[in-house]
Amino acid sequence: MSNTQGGVVTAERSSAPPLIELDGVVKRFGSVEALRGVHFDLLPGEVHALLGQNGAGKSTLIKIFAGVLDKDDGIIRVEGEETAFKSAAAARDAGVAVVYQELSLVPSMRVADNLFLAREPSRFGLVNRRKLVADARRFLEEQGLPLNPNARVEHLPFAYRQLTEIAKALFGEVRILILDEPTSSLSRGEEEILFDAVRQACSRGVGVIYVTHRLEEVFKLSDRVTVLRDGANVGTFETRDATMEKLVSAIVGPSHEGVVSEHVRYERAASGRDVPPVVELVDVSNDRLHNVDLAVRPGEVVGLAGMTGSGRTEILETIFGLRKVASGELRVSGEKKRLARGPIQAIELGIGLVPEDRHVQGLVLDHSIERNLALPHLDQLDFFGLFRRRESKTRARSVIDALSIKTPSSGTQAAELSGGNQQKVVFGRWSDPTPKLLLLDEPTVGVDVGAREQIYDVVRRVVSSGSAVLIVSSDLGELLMLTDRVAIVADGRVVEVLDVAEIRNEEHLHQIVQEAQS
């Protein structure tokens, strides 16, 4: 069982054995040891945070928990009994449920159908849809999840797809729940919905392994923290005894003491307000936006703050040509543009996009790093119908070195990279040449503290070169740190635009966003 103190779930220690325990677990991929004698245990009713940089071994450990990978050495015990999960089905039968960053939903099906997939209630050999929907609705209400059981998943905002995945994991006889970056695209209000669902699961004795790069969440939710570095244990801490500095030091190691552990506002000269905008939306409306006015000038960072579904992403998509302008004007460098050829024309005009979902929209996962980096620049790499392979390889190596992408070679498939390194590849597409306007949609989702700082450095270099950045982020502290101005978005409208100096702190910005939505 568990109780709650100040918002933190606090497990009541008992004499019962851990739900699951790993002792000296080793996993090798060829000559590489991904896990080097890892120890980890999870108690009933506790939230145990698992931290580490991308490539530290967290994903490998999760896959062993889930039965996707088999260990090469060491012992796994479930409630004191030695076991081994030889398959994902065996792990599920033992009560292990995993919510990965890559969602496993069927987009064309409704929320209720995804919850009951392969276990639909039937009557006379036919699916009893009335009972299916009623049971799904009751379950969602019990969990406090604001999901419509009849909504088709493909029509949901990404954050609500993520909540559906979490609901699917909680549905059934779950004893061990593993959440891999569950709040990556959730707003503050949606985070609290998730946290309440986790607390409710813990109150039933479920143990939760919580993987996150957002360290502030660790202090809000977890009882204990285990940090991995280079496939080995760095330490396990009681959350009440840990500090932000202690966790950052454990995660990045002594060679990265300069890494920023909290959002610190960086100062630079603001761009002149009399400079013509790089991009300007004048009274723009389409299927999701209503009379939007917004200007982004050279040398500035403008943030878009709002709830999920407010229209933040749709503003970026309209500028990049993914959504047509129904009325109003989209001006690029002062000239009215229709972007009839969509993203191709936007790229030609010097606009780049780092999308929200890198796996679906940002990368071709079964292509190499080199090919992914080349995609926006194929016209430059074409020589009378022949692909300039040597130039492409040189360019890829330059990006890999500049962004410290951890990979054996530029020929490595994007799917084989950690989340942070995948995101660096998406950023790397726009490093040469630097676009006039870089559009960023949740740019630090699923990346560790070290990779996040490198991404922030990219943003700073972009604006210092005279280009502009328009950024969507659910991390309000990140917006306050990076931006010059913040546009508040609600119901497809830009409600107001504030200088960052007018915003007192993250809580103040959260309040402004909530008031705009109401």
Report on this structure.
- This protein is of the alpha/beta class.
- Among the domains are: 275-350 and 436-518, Rossmann fold (3-Layer(aba) Sandwich), CATH 3.40.50.300; 360-434, no CATH class.
- It contains 17 helices and 26 strands.
- Strands 8-11-12-5-13-14 form a six-stranded mixed β-sheet, sandwiched between helices. A six-stranded mixed β-sheet has the order 20-23-24-17-25-26, sandwiched between helices. The chain has a four-stranded antiparallel β-sheet with strand order 4-3-6-7, with no helix packed on it.
- Helix 14 packs parallel to helix 15.
- The chain is globular.
- 47% of the residues are buried.
Set down the secondary structure blueprint.
Layout: E1 2-5, E2 8-11, E3 20-29, E4 32-42, E5 47-51, H1 58-65, E6 73-78, E7 81-83, H2 88-93, E8 96-99, H3 111-115, E9 122-123, E10 126-127, H4 129-143, H5 158-170, E11 176-180, H6 188-203, E12 207-211, H7 215-221, E13 224-229, E14 232-238, H8 244-252, E15 279-285, E16 292-296, E17 301-305, H9 312-319, E18 327-332, E19 335-337, H10 343-348, E20 351-354, H11 358-362, H12 369-374, E21 382-383, E22 386-387, H13 389-403, H14 419-428, E23 437-441, H15 449-464, E24 468-472, H16 476-482, E25 485-490, E26 493-499, H17 506-517
Parallel strand pairs: 5-12, 5-13, 8-11, 11-12, 17-24, 17-25, 20-23, 23-24
Antiparallel strand pairs: 1-2, 3-4, 3-6, 6-7, 9-10, 13-14, 15-16, 15-18, 18-19, 21-22, 25-26
Helix pairs in contact: 14-15
